[in-house]
What we know:
The strands form six sheets. The protein has a nine-stranded mixed beta sheet with strand order 7-10-11-4-1-12-13-17-18. It has a six-stranded parallel beta sheet with strand order 21-20-19-22-23-24, sandwiched between helices. Helix 6 crosses helix 33, helix 11 runs antiparallel to helix 12 (354-364) and helix 13 (382-388) packs across helix 14. It is 47% helix and 16% strand. With 829 residues, it is of the alpha/beta class. The chain starts with 19 loop residues before the first helix and ends in a 10-residue tail after the last helix. Bound molecules: ligand 26Q. Residues 127-130, 133, 279, 281-283, 285-286, 291, 370-371, 376, 378, 448, 477, 665-669, 687 line the site of ligand 26Q.
Amino acid sequence: MKKNDDSIFFTDLIDESCSTLERDFLTTIEYSRVKDRTTARSRDIFLSLSNALRDRLIRDWLRTQHVYRGSKTKRLYYLSMEFLMGRLLDNMLMNLDCYDEARELVKKTGFDLDKLRDLEPDMGLGNGGLGRLASCFLDSMATLSLPAYGYGIRYEYGIFRQDIQNGYQVEVPDNWLKYTCPWEICRPDLEYRVRFGGRVVCLPKGNQEYSYKLIETEDVIALAYDVPIPGYDTETVNNLRLWQAKSTNEFNFNYFNSGDYLAAVNDKNLSENISKVLYPNDNVYAGKVLRLKQQYFFVSATLQDIIRHHKKIHGKENFSNFADKVVIQLNDTHPSIAIPELMRIFIDEEGLGWIEAWEITRRTFAYTNHTVLPEAVEKWDVEIMGSLLPRQLQIIYEINRRFINEVRDFHNFGLNRVGDVSIIEESGGKFVRMANLAIVGSYSVNGVSALHTEILKNTIFRDFNEIYPGKFNNKTNGITPRRWLLQANPYLSKLITSKIGKGWTLDLDELRGLEKYVDDPDFCAAWVEAKLNAKRDLKSYAMEHWGFDLNLDSMFDVHIKRMHEYKRQLLNVLHTITLYNRIKRNPNGDFVPRTKIFGGKAAPGYYASKQIIKLINSVASVVNSDPDVNKKLNVFFFPNYSVSMAEKVIPASELSEQISTAGFEASGTGNMKFMLNGAMTIGTLDGANVEMLEEVGAENIFIFGMKADEVAEAKVTGYNPRRIYETDPELREVLDMINGDFFNRDEPHIFSQLFNALVDYGDNYMLLADYRSYIEMQDRVDAVYRDKAAWTRMSILNTARSGKFSSDRTIREYAEEIWHIKPVKVEKD
Ligand code: 26Q
C-alpha cells in the first residue's frame, strides 16, 4: 500500500503491481459488495475473495469443456441425489495453487485469511457416506482429467443443523444460501421442462404399431446451476450441475377458468417445493411422493441435457453410438427412474423401436449399491408411481414382462424365484423394486467393498448373480487425500512431504516410503508433535465453541458418523460406562486417560437414535462432573457433526471407532480418513475394515467381535441376549445403571426402551454378543497406548499403508473396468 493508503476505497489499492486476482478481489468488494474500508466486514472479504477465485477458474473451465467437445470422447455422468461438498475455499486455493497470494492480498485489506474460513457454510447437500463419496469422486475425476460430470439437485436447505437442547437433538433448517453461494453460476439460459402426471394416449401408427403421448401433464422447469470442480495439479476444471425447480409461467387453466386467480398462483409456488429440502434420512427409505418427484425431476432434466449434447456433437438422428459416448453411473437406486425415462425418450420422442432402445439403454447404465439394510431398499407404491409417472410405469411393466419371460424360459426359474427377481412386488400391495429395475437395466452392478460385494452376490442378489454372471463387481471406496490429509492436517502433511516429497498427493501409495522411518527417533518425535499440534487445535476449537475442556494428556477416542443403531454408538457407551465403573471402584488406579468424543446426526424421525444421543449427553454430564473420574475419563458429544467438523476432529484423533455389526456397514469411508491421519482403528470385520486389516497387518489394528457370517448364522438359529446379560456381571451392572436412571435422575425411565431392546427384544444389532470381546480389545488398546513408542510406530504404519484408500485408485478402477473412459488432457493457456 503506497500512495492511497488513507483512501477509504478498496479500488484505490489497485496499482500496476496487482495481479488480476487482486484487482478482481478489490473490485468485487467495492462494486458487488458495495463496501469501503470502513464498512467492509469479514463476510464481504470472504465472498469477494471467493468470487475472484471462481472467476480465475473460468478460463480453465471453459477450456476444459471446449477440449472435451473437440475430442468427442466418451463421457461419464455421475447421477446422485446427494453431494456433500463441505467447504470449498481451501479446496479452490489449493487447486489454484494460490494460497500465499490469497493470504497476502487478504492481509492488505486488513483481514486474516485464517479467520475467514469459518464463515463459509458447508455445502451440506447430502446425509453422510454416499454424498461425501460422490464429492470425493468429483475431486478424483477432475484430478485424473476424466471427462466426467456430476448431476444433482440444488436443495435450498441442505442437511439440517443439529442443536442440542437438554441433551436432545433439535433440528434447525440449514439456510446455506442466506448470503449466496460464491462458487455457483446460475445458467438462466439452461432450462428444461419436466412433466408430471397427466394421461397416456395411444395413437395407432398403422400395421398394429402404436405411438404413445403424454397429455395434460403438470410441468415444472429445471434451472441449471453450475459449480466448477478443479482438479489438483492439472488444468482440468470439471462441472457439477445442480438443478433448481422453478414454476412454469403458465397458470393452472382450470383455476383460471373458474376465476380463482390466487389458487392458480399458489399452485405455481408449490412446484418450487421440489428442490426445497434434502430428505434427512440416511440408510432409511422414505416412500414420500415429494421424494419421487425430486428423483424424477433431476433425472429428467439431466437426461434432456445429456441427449441435447449428444445430438449436438454426434448428429441428430444418431443414437447407434450413444452407449459408446455416454455412460451414466447411478449412485444407488435413487436416480434409477432414469432407466425407464431413457426408454421413454428413445421410443416416444426419438422414434426408436423397443429392441433397439433397450439395447442402448442397458449398455448405458451402471449401478452402485451402497447398502444391504432392508429398511433402506427403495420400493415405490405402484399407485403413487402410476399417478406421478404413468408412462414410465407402463414402460417398467413392459421391461418386467420381457425380463420375466427370459428368466422363465432361459434360466428355468420356478414361480417362487421368478417372484423374487420380479421388478414388481405383488405381496400386500404392489411396489416397484428399484434395485431390481437398476440391476436389469444396467450392464454393471458394483458393491463398495470386497465384503459388501460378496454379500450382494451371495445373499440379497444371489439369483441376479446367477442370471447375469459377470455383471456384479467390486469397487472398494476411497477418499480424496487432498482434502483429508493435505488440507485438513497441515502438521502431518508437511512432515510427510519433508521426508518423502509431495508425490503422495497424487500417488498415495508413495506413503509406503514412510515405513523406513518408523525406527528413526527424530522422525517419531516429530510425528508425535504433529499429532499433538492437531490435538491442541481441536482443544481450542472445542473450548471456544462449546466450553468443552479436552485433556491433552488423554487418548482422543472418536466415534463420529451418522447416528444409527447398526453403527453401534450404544456399544461404545457401554464401554464408556464400564470404564466409569472401574475408575469409581478404584479411584487411585493407574488408568489410561481417555476422552470419548461422539458426533453425528440422527434422522429426525428415528426415535431410538435420538435416545442414544440423549444417553451420550446424560452419561457425559455424570462422568465429566464426577471428581473421582474426570481426570481419567471425559465424554463429549460435539453438536452438528459435518464435513468441516470432520476436517478438524480427524487429524486430532488417536482411536477410531468402526464398530458396526458385521455385515451391515457396506464400506465406511470415515474409517479410511482416520487411518490416513495416523489414528488406530478399533473395529469389526465389516465393510472396508476388512481391507484395512489386509493392508496394515493384524498387529496394527484392533479387530474384535463376530464375523459377518456368524452374525447371519445367529440371526437364523436365534440368539439369547438375556443370557449374556445374566452371566456377565460387569455388563449387567452397566445395563442396570442405564435402566435404573443412574444418568437421568430427573427424567425417570427415559432409557428403559433402550435397555429392553437389548435385553428382551432380541438385540437386533448384537451388542451384547460383542460386548466382552470389545471390552477386551479396548483393554489391549490401553496397553499399547501406554507404550508410546509402540503406539507411534503403529500410527506411522497406519498412514504409510493407507495408499489403497485413495479415491484416485477407486476412480481409476471405475474408469478402466466399468466406464471405459480415458483421461483427456487440457493444456496450459
Ligand atoms: C432413500 C429414500 C428416501 C429418502 C432417503 C433415502 C436414502 C438416503 C441416503 C437412503 C440411503 C442414503 C444413504 C446411504 C449411505 O450413505 N450409505 C453409505 O454409503 C457409503 C458410501 O458407499 C458407505 O461407505 C456406507 O457404508 C453406507 O452406509
